[in-house]
Amino acid sequence: MEHQSNLNSSPVQTSPTIVSSNWFPIVFSLITLVVGIFLGIEIGRSQIQNQQTISTGVTISPTGVTAPTVQAVVPTVEPSPLLKGKVEGKICYPSDYVPKGYILAKNVETNKIDKTSFEGVPPKTQDYSLNLDVGKYVFAYDPGGNGNYMGYFTSCAPTMNVANCSTNESHKLIEVTVTANKTVSGVDLCDYYYQPNQKPNF
């Protein structure tokens, strides 16, 4: 005789697994920590770049170093004033007066001629003076400004004596050296006593 159990077999009910809500704060904290670390690294890198730019003047970019733009400052050089010296003497003419004309000072190195007007005697005296750049010069006086009959500074000019004016050599122009802040005196423009073939080559 079979024994039949009175116990009713019923299926075992299994409840679904539910994640405890205590995990959410932990996960959120971890995410916040990672984000904070990343932001801290980026901020630190930016500060380092700024410090390098300020201290060295060089901008560091992700691809390399960019040299700063340097603007060259060229100092202004003022031209030095030309050095000058003085020449003085007297102006002659074979008459009892000196007509208006021009004092000519020719630089023998550059062939430049400085031309200074002279009012004549009278109203002026025979004396003149010129301020010239340093250099070597020859001198003449051109009455009337036409260049036809001029008085020169030669070895004949100081005395106009026949003994000093009879040779070709006595009518050669005398070169005068003008030096800075110095005065050369006795440059008399008085030689009119030359023959046509003796006329100085000015």
Task: Walk me through this protein's architecture.
Strand 7 (135-143) and strand 8 (151-152) form a beta hairpin. The radius of gyration is 54 Å and the shape is rod-shaped. It has two domains: 23-63, no CATH class; 84-198, Sandwich (Immunoglobulin-like). Strands 4, 5, 7, 8 and 9 form a five-stranded antiparallel beta sheet that branches. It contains two helices and ten strands, in the order αββββββββαββ. It is an alpha+beta fold and 202 residues long. It has helices spanning 23-56, 162-165; strands spanning 59-61, 64-66, 84-90, 101-107, 113-118, 127-133, 135-143, 151-152, 176-178, 183-184. The longest helix has 34 residues, at 23-56.
What's the mean pLDDT score?
79
Helix content: 10-25%
> How large is the count of helical segments?
2
Q: Could you state the CATH homologous superfamily of the largest domain?
A: Immunoglobulins
* Strand segment tally: 10
- Helical/strand content category: alpha+beta
The tally of domains stands at 2
Please give the alpha-carbon distance between the first and last residues: 170 Å
Element order, helices and strands? HEEEEEEEEHEE
Overall radius of gyration:
54 Å
Question: What ranges have pLDDT less than 50 throughout 5 or more consecutive residues?
Answer: 1-12, 14-19
Q: If you consult CATH, what is the topology of the largest domain?
A: Immunoglobulin-like
Second CATH tier, the architecture of the largest domain: Sandwich
Could you give a short account of the major beta sheet? 5 strands, antiparallel
Strand residue content: 15-25%
User: Which CATH class of the largest domain?
Assistant: Mainly Beta
- What coarse outline follows from CA principal-axis ratios? rod-shaped
